[in-house]
Amino acid sequence: MFGGGGMNPRKMKQMMKQMGIDVTELEAEEVVIKTADEELVFSDAQVTRMDAQGQETYQIVGEPETRELGAGDDGDDNDEVADAIPADDVAIVAQRAGVPEDEAREALEAEDGDLAAAIARLE
């Protein structure tokens, strides 16, 4: 069993290097995972790339926002963007910014569905 609970991080890094495992922190601004039904958007995630014997593995740590697939893609027609904004996104923005849902929806429409930008706009 490999126990790293009480191990010194420097020692752990040295052992991983000896085993041929290279770990790199990536400065990602946004990570999007598209499934058949939705998009998971990580706006402020910690991303780590691990290269072990030529096989790359990525680890994402953070809280994703869920969007309907294709929400806000065209950005030309505000009515289509408004229709594409999920009620959950409106509720999240309203709660985080401490505003009524109609204001939250307006901010999301103005920011083409971008939750973080809408919250920043209202704060």
Question: Can you give keywords for this protein?
Answer:
alpha+beta; three-stranded antiparallel beta sheet; 2 domains; Ubiquitin Ligase Nedd4, Chain: W
Mean pLDDT: 81
Q: Which segments are poorly predicted (pLDDT under 50) over 5 or more consecutive residues?
A: 74-79
Structural class estimated from helices and strands: alpha+beta
Main sheet specs? 3 strands, antiparallel
Alpha plus pi helix count: 5
Instruction: Report the end-to-end length measured between terminal Cα atoms.
Output: 49 Å
Number of domains: 2
Strand content: 25-35%
Shape field: elongated
Write a brief caption for the model.
The chain has 123 residues and is an alpha+beta fold. It has helices at 9-18, 78-84, 87-97, 101-110, 115-122; strands at residues 21-26, 31-34, 38-42, 46-52, 55-61, 65-68.
What do you see in this structure?
This protein is of the alpha+beta class and 123 residues long. The protein has 2 domains: 18-69, Single Sheet (Ubiquitin Ligase Nedd4, Chain: W), CATH 2.20.70; 71-123, no CATH class. 37% of the residues lie in helices and 27% in strands. The chain has 5 helices and 6 strands, in the order H-E-E-E-E-E-E-H-H-H-H. The protein has helices at residues 9-18, 78-84, 87-97, 101-110, 115-122; strands at residues 21-26, 31-34, 38-42, 46-52, 55-61, 65-68. The strands form 2 sheets. Strands 1-4-5 form a 3-stranded antiparallel sheet. The chain has a 3-stranded antiparallel sheet with strand order 2-3-6, with no helix packed on it. A hairpin with a 2-residue loop joins strand 4 (46-52) and strand 5 (55-61). Helix 3 (87-97) packs across helix 4 and helix 3 (87-97) packs parallel to helix 5 (115-122). The longest helix has 11 residues, at 87-97. It is elongated and about 55 Å long. The termini are far apart.
